[in-house]
Amino acid sequence: MLNPVVAIDGPAASGKSTVARRLAAKLNFTYVDTGAMYRAFAWLALEKNTDPADRVSVSGLVESAPFELTISGGAVHMKLDGRDPAPFIREERVNTAVSRIAAIPELREKLVIEQRKLRNLSPLVMEGRDIGTVVFTDTVFKFFLDADPLIRAQRRQQQGQADTVANRDKVDSSRAVAPLTKAADAILVDATYDDADMIVEKILRLCRERGLSAKKVDAL
Q1: How far apart are CA 178 and CA 102, in angstroms?
Q2: What is the extent of the structural domain holding 189?
Q3: What is the pLDDT of residues 127-178, one digit of tens each?
């Protein structure tokens, strides 16, 4: 029997990362931040002086750089090209590059394969921009978090990130491969005014109404 997956999609600064992390803790599921994976490759491209928008160069990087995902302590840990990219993926240069590299089809294909493998290891709360529409279309636990653009812009500034939500939304929603969009069967959750804990409780209730129960994740 397949492990359950709660899919949480949404635009930048919608609160999905905080909500997904807290929801995973409540359920004892593994939290998966797919955006971090794209950020990791954006960081590696910059480290190797590769244009994140150059499909040929990025495809070569995807083919040549070893990439590994493991689960421990309720979280996913990455190793890319023999290094831990986690300390570097929130750098401003990565913020400005991630949308461009995320549009490369070969990278998306590789990461979707790796993301799907995680379901074999643990029940998941996975957040991103294409979880319900591409990665796990079969899950019945799909949510799309959104918030007023002005509120999201304020959150982005508070996070110390210079890229605007308007630009990020435009790039993410207009890309040819896996554009940001709400799955037809996803539940829209307005995160404009409710705090993260309120949203987590709402999602928990909706998941349980659909038959989801907490399952202890063994240490891996």
Answers
A1: 9
A2: 5-204
A3: 999 999 999 999 999 999 999 988 888 877 777 665 567 777 777 888 888 8
